[in-house]
Amino acid sequence: MSTLFQSELNLPSRGVSRRVTRRPEILPGDTEVLFDEAGPGCIRHWWLTYTPADREAAHDRIHDLHLRVYYDDADTPAIDLTLGQFFGIMLGQDLYAVYSAALTVMPKNALNCYLPMPFGAMRMELKNRSASKVSIWFMADWHGYSGKSLTPLRLTTCPHAEHTASSAGSYLMADMTGEGFIAGMTKAVRVQDESDAWYHTGGDLWLLDGETDPHPMRGIGGEDIFNMSFGVWEAQAPWVGTPHLKEPVKGAAGRAGYECVNYRFFGPDPIWFNTSSVVRFGSKANDIETVIYAYVHAQPAPSILTPDTWLLAGPFRCNNESAFYRREWAEEPIHLWPETWIPDFGQYVTDQGPAAFGIPIQADSEHGWCDFARHFRGRKPTNIGTQPVDVSAYAVGKVHVSKSGLYDLCIGYDDWLSLWINGEPVITNGRHNNGFAIDTETRSLPAGDVEIRVKLSNQDNFQWRLWAFHVKIA
Predict the structure, then answer these.
(1) Is 18 a domain residue?
(2) Do 294 and 340 belong together in one domain?
(3) pTM
(4) 99 and 178 together in one domain
(5) Structurally, how many domains does the chain consist of?
(6) What is the CATH number of the domain that holds 182?
(7) Residue 175 shares a structural domain with residue 67
(8) Which of 234, 268, 298 is the last residue of a domain?
(9) For residue 303, is it within any domain?
(10) What is the DSSP code (8-state) at residue 444?
(11) Using omega within 30 degrees of 0 as the cis cutoff, is the peptide bond preceding 307 cis?
(12) 373 shares its domain with 404
């Protein structure tokens, strides 16, 4: 049977089998080194258990034991989170069983990691943040590859939590630079916002390789990335599962007190990136905790000429071509824009009245990307109600051109687009009706600050209601 991510990591088929076995006792506040070896090598499996906390303890000790992993003599750990976060025991819960292909939690706090951990050199530490001594049992089975070249990719985690997340927001799960692939994720939700089910937020959004080959991936509902339908259910399989589900009212995923913890490992379908990866998830005003697991050769992303910040205006009704070509007030100079805009149509009108947006909305560029849906989510129930459709919006940004001359303006988008440079139209009939694609326009640009203005529509197409664009000048 092949090892998880064996081919993606291009690991040698054979090595010298070795084991590190530890049985330390860690005093409160102390840190113990569990593994400290020179390679090249790869941990193929590690197991850990610990003495349970007293019954009077506020929570399980898995939340007090902090894991750090350093590779190749780096000063900054690539893995830096609690054992609970690493093994998918979230929301401060006591232990529950986890039966994924990558991570398992067995009865009586037996923790197993099957994610390969290649290294040139590696140090694994565990800190006891509880108020009492903890006994640890630890074994790591690893292969040594003396004289063999080894992948530069290292197992890395990106933990994040928001208590409480933004209503109709966009929760950032990870923003990574370098080369590698995303191997999996966990997501935990405790419902506070009773306006709708937690998964009716527009789902996941992946903005990949903004510096070299911009391409997005778009989800639909929050449960879909975990391969479930019409909610999540207490079931586990090798790649997907919900090991923890608490339902005060059966099937009511929008009631206060509802909790779920979900995992997805991309064993058959890792998500590759070459320079950068931004992972976002639509949110409501709930408690959210996440971890992204990735194999990364961490390095700075190449610099690109793109606006650092966009000023957004909208949304506007746009259900046909004549509506798209209608001149809106957002084509005027920014100082003439209104301070507030109330879109009185479609998904922006509820029984409580229409939504109101402060204008302009400031949006930071993410590796050249700008996502309108992040800032203009609909206000109606379900994913159809939150993810905008039949709309348009504008974005205005500036770049500083150091030397006048001919430049390639690369603009990636789907649906319909118009673009102006310093007020002059450059693209007036942009059409990508079959999904995201990139157009390149060669233009003479003056030295100094150059204004770029974009108008983009959003319809249903092959990347469901994706409403993001990418700009790069080369």
Answers:
(1) yes
(2) no
(3) 0.95
(4) no
(5) 3
(6) 2.60.120.1390
(7) no
(8) 298
(9) no
(10) E
(11) no
(12) yes
CATH of the domain at 318: 2.60.120
Strand intervals (E) in 149-267: 154-162, 169-190, 204-208, 215-218, 240-246, 259-265
Q: What is the pLDDT of residues 317-334, one digit of tens each?
A: 999 999 999 999 999 999
Range of the domain at 25: 6-151
Can you list the positions of beta strands (E) in 59-168?
Answer: 65-71, 79-82, 98-99, 103-106, 110-113, 117-128, 134-144, 154-162
Percent of the chain with pLDDT over 70: 99
35 and 80 fall within a common domain: yes
- Is residue 280 domain-shared with residue 313, that is, in the same domain? no
326-385 pLDDT tens trace: 999 999 999 999 999 999 999 999 988 899 999 999 999 999 999 999 999 998 888 888
Find the radius of gyration of the CA atoms of the chain. Answer: 25
Strands (E), 301-423: 309-317, 340-341, 349-350, 353-354, 357-358, 361-364, 369-371, 391-401, 405-421
Q: Token pair for residue 166?
A: 């933004």
Q: Domain for residue 1, yes or no? A: no
Q: Any bridge partners for residue 471, and if so which?
A: 411
- Look at residues 151, 168, 190 and tell me which one is the last residue of a structural domain: 151
Q: What percent of the chain has pLDDT over 90?
A: 88
Give Cβ neighbours of residue 165 (< 8 Å, ≥ 6 apart). 171, 283, 284, 285, 286, 287, 288
Tokens of 376: 């203009």
**Cα end-to-end distance, the chain, whole Å:** 47
Same domain, residue pair 14 and 81: yes
1 pLDDT tier (thresholds 50, 70, 90): very low
pLDDT tens figures, 121-177? 999 999 999 999 999 999 999 999 988 889 999 999 999 999 999 888 899 999 999
CB atoms within 10 A of CB 445: 18
CA-CA distance, 53 to 244, in Å (whole number)? 21
pLDDT digits (tens, 9 = 90+) for 72-120: 999 999 999 999 999 999 999 999 999 999 999 999 899 999 999 999 9
pLDDT value at residue 58: 67
Q: What is the sign of the dihedral through the CA atoms of 310, 315, 321 and 322? A: negative
Note whether 354 and 390 are same-domain residues: yes
- CA separation for the pair 336, 281 (Å, rounded): 33
The answer to whether the beta carbons of residues 370 and 469 sit under 8 Å apart is: yes
DSSP-assigned beta bridge partners for residue 409: 441, 473
